[in-house]
Amino acid sequence: MGGLGARAALLVALLCPVALVALAPQEPTPVLAQATTPEGRTLLLRLQFRKGLSVEGKALPKAFLAKGAEPAGWIPFELLSPEGKRWALAALFPDDQWRSDEVRHRVRYPEVESVWTLAALFAGHGQNYDRLMTENPDLPEKLREGDRWRIPRSLLSQDLGGQGRGPDRSQPEDGLDDEARVAAYRALLSFSEDSHGRFAVYRLRKGEALYSSVVIRYTDRVDPKGVNELAEQIAARSGIADVRSIQPGQLIRIPLTFLSGPFQPEGSSELAEERVIRAEVRRTARVEGGPKLKGIRIVLDAGHGGVDPGARANGVWESDFVYDISMRVRRILEQDTEAAVSSTIRYPGLGFRTRDEIRIPSRQAEILTTPPFQVDGESPSAVSVHLRWVLANDFFATFRKAKGDAQKTLFLSFHADSLHPSARGSMAYVPGAALVPSTFALGGASAGRVAEGRRSARVAFTSREKLEGEARSRQFSEVLLASLQREGIPVHANRPIRNVILRTGGKWVPAVLRYSTGATKVLVEVANLTNEDDAANLRDPDFRERYAAAVVAAVRAYYRK
Fold it and tell me: CA nearest 518: which of 434, 428, 340, 394?
């Protein structure tokens, strides 16, 4: 539907309080409202859940457009001038009170408004949501119609006449490499003891929040439920009644049982293990691959697929989008290098092609064993989970038999996570040496169905191989994250390289890393889908192309002494 017909349909929808225009499944219907410009022209405003506000561009006054913006289609709120932003907010939220020291926003559309949306509209960026919640400690995070949210002038964006400068997520440690960064974070801790036991002491710095700067940084928890629950426990242990009312300088007590290995006190076995692996990283020499990567064997894996779309949030799902990035990496490697490249997974009907537009989850995906095996899920009992590493190990075994250098083997698995929304950007998981088994064999019933299973379903690792595997994987991860940052691609703050996943009470390493015989093996979490900025990036084909190019640049840099 286009032209006058589309506009007429939208105007008809205005007869209802909420327009009957469907978004992605399970997303609330967007709100449409009419607004009149100073010249008397009637335009439409559209408020979408987690996607924010946009304005019909046709006939929008030039004074309402930011420099360089074109008055066509739907104009995102970010591309409006300060005058246009104020006009749009006043038209959509006529009950708001604009005072000299603050704005009092009345929730009008609770089905599509969120704290993130309010922060994006009024405070300049969605990631100011934690500061907005701090200013409104008596209001629930789930918005209710009629609630009055306070946006003080200090938080209100400069475009709206406030003093806010957008989110300040920078810290002095951001420019350090992983080892130095972890050491700097450790130096911020001290240790004490009371009647409840031993704990680490941390004082919040300006701009920090309990969720991201304590729980995500100093523990191995990153999933929303785990982060929220532990934040509440730490707050209670620290005598904090409300996690949203914490001020800079607040003393935080972190029980030792929750601290990850690098932050445990002197004399602990966890800290000793950390120091052993750091020493191994420093003494492990990098391998030369030459400018064209000749003699390098690379296996690419894209997580989930077919019956398992993976994580979902903000209108994006994991499987198809990371598959597209993997295929772009494959294409660039095959075009620009002499590396031998294989994939563990293929989407029938699509093959190894890339796509600019991804509309719905693909229904089929197969592991490229002999014969191909349909993806049957991502649970630990799913056969296809294990056939990924079996197939990759078979590729590496064939490479070694052909006199290939075992140290020139690289396994990359691409994923996208659904973490706490305060987390943003890419992370890299490496196989923690302490969690890699000495031997493992996939059961015959699962492995025997494919030729690769009969050849490569058993693994054995010496203690030295475990250490070297983690060390080389950490080295590559460091190079990868630096390459992403050079391209302006967000990287997870605090600790973007991790060697363990902690969820549902247990610590583990993904099977594709745990049993991989590749010299270097990394699972890349491209983005956090619950973070709206990350989700928007993943939907953008230009971002996916830049991401793939940065990955290939990292591979080139890693194999260059």
Answer: 394
